[in-house]
Amino acid sequence: MSDTLNAAERRELPASAYGLPERREYPMPDAAHVRAAEAYFRYCPEELRPKLARAILAKAKEFGVDVESPTVLSYAEE
User: What is the pLDDT of residue 2?
Assistant: First the structure.
């Protein structure tokens, strides 16, 4: 899988591959996309940040990614 997903690839992903599955946003099918979700975390709506932060940490653990963002880590605790 490349660093970017085209529309067809995004449609093929299961809902569980997304940080926000109900909105099908922040796809994380691999380690590179987990890092991208961490980098784009600031664009997430405020009310959805705790949910996305927990999803990022779960996917990071699955793919062996170290989450370094203090913002993501603090929201995950909420």
Answer: 60
Query: Over the stretch 14-25, which tens digit does the pLDDT of each residue have?
Result: 999 999 999 999
Q: What CA–CA distance (Å, rounded) separates 36 from 29?
A: 11
Closest by Cα among 25, 19, 33 to 63: 33
Task: Look up residue 2 and give its DSSP letter.
Answer: -
Check whether 1 has a pLDDT greater than 60. no
CA 73 remoteness from chain centre: 13
Surface-to-core class of residue 4, CB atoms within 10 Å of its CB (0-12 exposed, 13-18 middle, 19+ buried): exposed
- Residue 76: name the closest of 49, 56, 53, 58 by CA: 53
Residue 53: burial class (beta carbons within 10 Å; 0-12, 13-18, 19+): buried
